[in-house]
Amino acid sequence: MTELARLRNFSIVAHIDHGKSTLADRIIERCGALEAREMRGQVLDSMDLERERGITIKAQTVRLKYTARDGGDYIFNLVDTPGHVDFSYEVSRSMRACEGSLLLVDATQGVEAQTLANAYQAIDADHEIVVVLNKIDLPAAEPEKIKEQIEDILGLDAADALLISAKTGDGVDAVMEQIVHRLPPPSGEVAAPLKALVVDSWYDPYLGVVTLVRVKQGRLEKGMRARFMGTGAVHPIDRVGVFSPKPVVIDELGPGEVGFITAGIKDIADAQVGDTVTDDKKPADAPLPGFRPSQPVVFCGMFPADGGDYPALRDALGKLRLNDASFAYEPENSQALGFGFRCGFLGLLHLEIIQARLDREFDLDLVLTAPSVVYRLYRRDGSMMELHNPADFPDPTQVDYLEEPWIKATIIVPDDFLGPVLQLCTEKRGIQEQLTYVGQRAMVVYRLPLNEVVYDFYDRLKSISRGYASFDYDMVGFDRSDLVKMDIMINGDRVDSLALMVHRSMAEARGRALCERLQELIPRQQYQVAIQAAIGGKVIARETVKAMRKDVLAKCYGGDVTRKRKLLEKQKAGKKRMRQFGKIEIPQEAFLAALKMETS
Amino acid sequence: MSCTVSAAPAPAAPAGDPGFGLYVHWPFCRAKCPYCDFNSHVRAEVDQDRWRRALLAELDHVAALAPAAGPLRSIFFGGGTPSLMPPATTAAVIDRAVARFGAEAGIEITLEANPTSVEAARFRAYRDAGVDRVSLGVQALNDADLTALGREHSAAEALAAVALAARTFPRFSFDLIYARPGQDAAAWEAELGRALDHAGDHLSLYQLTLEPGTRFHALAERGRLRLPPDDTQAELYRLSHDLLAAAGLAAYEVSNHARPGAESRHNLVYWRGGAFAGIGPGAHGRLDLASGRVGTSTERWPERWLDRVERDGHGLAPFEPLDAVTRLAELVMMGLRLAEGVPLARIEQLAGRPWRETLDARGLARAERRGHLTVEDGRLKATPQGRLLLDAVLVDLLP
Ligand SMILES: Nc1nc2c(ncn2[C@@H]2O[C@H](COP(=O)(O)OP(=O)(O)O)[C@@H](O)[C@H]2O)c(=O)[nH]1
Ligand SMILES: C[S@@+](CC[C@H](N)C(=O)[O-])C[C@H]1O[C@@H](n2cnc3c(N)ncnc32)[C@H](O)[C@@H]1O
Ligand code: SF4
Ligand SMILES: [Mg+2]
Description:
heterodimer; A: 600 residues; alpha+beta; Rossmann fold; Elongation Factor Tu (Ef-tu), domain 3; Alpha-Beta Plaits; 6-stranded mixed β-sheet; 14 helices; 34 strands; 34% strand; B: 399 residues; alpha/beta; TIM Barrel; Arc Repressor Mutant, subunit A; 9-stranded mixed β-sheet; 3-stranded antiparallel β-sheet; 16 helices; 41% helix; globular; disordered N terminus; binds guanosine-5'-diphosphate; binds S-adenosylmethionine; binds iron/sulfur cluster; binds magnesium ion
């Protein structure tokens, strides 16, 4: 067990790409935790996918030994936090495992939306905060201006901010010393009943579920029967260890320490992030505050492009779920797409990550329906159902009213682009709550319906601000709303997977846009194709794809029969990738594009 | 490749026998047309002796491979521009081919010619060499379009060549390309009317196709060349059919029109699924060997082909064995281009099964229901509407 005064637990909070992973690498190097040859860029991002996308998905921790200039030996626990909106709950849990934060800001970019969101979480968690300005090696760095921003926007004292380059290592030694001298050590009674916070958990094919914990009080050791207070699950601990960053088994963890346990847990839902672990024999009287199981808010259908891949998709989703308790799925059957699953995610990024992993790790070719959010549907008989799929919308006469989820969005944007950003938010039914200026940049806070945000909000925000706007959000709850279900019909047949929920005021425009898009995407067929958008029985938009007039190779290839045959074979292969809608076949690519509804 | 046709005494094809043909590829042109992706190349000089010897050597080689093949129903000199070939070479190839394979009575011997005055001057020599039909690449009847197509001749020059061909050869045909940029129905109708004034018993009308790798394709990609809209293209096609049918030159194939009996017997061999030998660079063939039907092809690049023939006696690539399923696909794919359709007996003979079982049942039912295919006189035929959509129909139909 480590003496409390020698422990420092901290996280690095930053907007994406401000250099968090790079700084973590430098800190790990300074501690000599890894042999030089084991060092590769961004050691903490263990999944290949993260390496590629450059974002940190799973919060992870590393325990490091640091000898300070004063000659004292210290143990650092660096808890890496996910940097994106979709994972704000995970961010807040990992914050609760620490006493301090390094607030890292790119000195060329300044404060961005996620800087703000994460800094507020650190403040909420009562962290001591050390401000670090990164990338001062770049000529565009403006440390003085950024310090001012930090004071203006965040109200933090930036006079002592450290100026570093995580890339060159410049200034990193000072960071190490500040961790020792500015950040407080943890506290906690060894003799008290065990309370350990679950910071993260994931599935390891060899160890089963690995649970990362921060001990708040008491002692955690091998052989103990661990009780997860939120879920009630009890499992005997068979391994206690720390990450250095390689896993190392140790005897026990005491107050203030961060490490992992394995306990023969099969289902990751038994070890949920934010839950409290106690000793089943000598339990704590109350769990640590604030546990809430993660709730998917964005849903979409996932179908194998080739129906024969259904069992493979089922197995793959099962495997992903092992590693990610916040990802939910249930079987779904669509007339257009066949058998698949309705999947729930924390947000759009989460969805993208799962999709990319399915593609990469399982080599599955998928069709995804347009993302939708969860609605609360109140029936006339007073009962409520959560609507995850527009196709499940009941007979309208049974419906009393609907509620939709709202978010609070924070957007930081250069002055020049403010006009179009405000316009976008208004168009998306947003309600302005705040508008402040920081130098040349504006910070706006809006309440927005999540369903408008999942529909092309990111893309448009990015394009109207040429990428300069940053964005973060928090869920704020459900509100009553005038929502309708819109059906898309192709030659009179409802296409279940294209149905969507939409606010009545937006229905007509959305219906028209969708019909037009489909009209562009559906190639001419041997017969005319009618595309309609309808609410209830009422058609609100329509388009027609005229019948194909001619499709025959009119040029002569003479004796090159093989070439002609190969051309046909290619067409035939393309046809296999068609989706059948009634009598109409739509190329899968067109269908996907319609689901995405990019506005390009 | 061969795209020609000629008109003549009715091909006395014994029922069910598609005949045997020889295709000879001449790969050189005076200039490369910007729409053309045929195996054609511009060369400052061609060693005519070597080329003659090489063609004859490859002919001997192929004849030895397929000793049972023949007699010839047709010989076709395609290109490239075969009217740049020395007539003596043409004569030597014809003589050797007849010596090796034998010839049916009334053998058809066609040569593709570009309608410039230079080439027209040699028509007599080709006639003396044994050519009895020419197919002229007229392409368009107005000079602006001919320039746009990169052609080396004017409309007047082309029509003069047509007139000379009509006097020199027993049969002739010419090609036009339609659905050219900016062309509308009225312009095409007028042009076709003029074409009919000069036509013999056969005309080929090819819809302009943008082929990857050509200049036209690159221009279109960059938005600097635009074909008429789909609907116009279809209208031009239909217009051609109606107009030529009224003039007695009904379409006997998707792009080919002739008076009855004046069809190109050479191309009928292809469309009816017959065997043919192909010599010269990039030539294709279909040969019946002891092992069964194979597809043949030769080295495309002229100089490499020449070197290979001089070294190995031929420029053939490894054969492509054609199994029953593939042969069937080819038979149906080619045969449905013809108005006469495909004899059901041929399908069954090839598949050894009732013909319906060899095709995609749903695709067949759909095409029949939609009126795209019919069964008539023991033949499976595409209706005129079906032929317009033939590629889509075939994709549904072939298993
Ligand atoms: N020039 C410069 N580039 C840096 C510095 N720190 C990080 N970067 C680069 O910034 C990008 C994002 O860094 P990363 O550590 O992945 O950021 P994260 O998203 O916050 O984890 C990478 O291309 C880094 O190489 C620095 O101090 N100077
Ligand atoms: C082998 S080619 C050319 C024969 C000869 N060298 C000539 O140009 O007159 C036969 C015919 O194919 C047609 N053709 C060639 N390329 C074409 C294209 N891209 N689209 C439509 N028809 C084409 C032309 O009508 C041409 O006459
Ligand atoms: S002359 Fe004929 S073969 Fe030669 S490039 Fe032109 S179209 Fe092609
Ligand atoms: Mg990172």
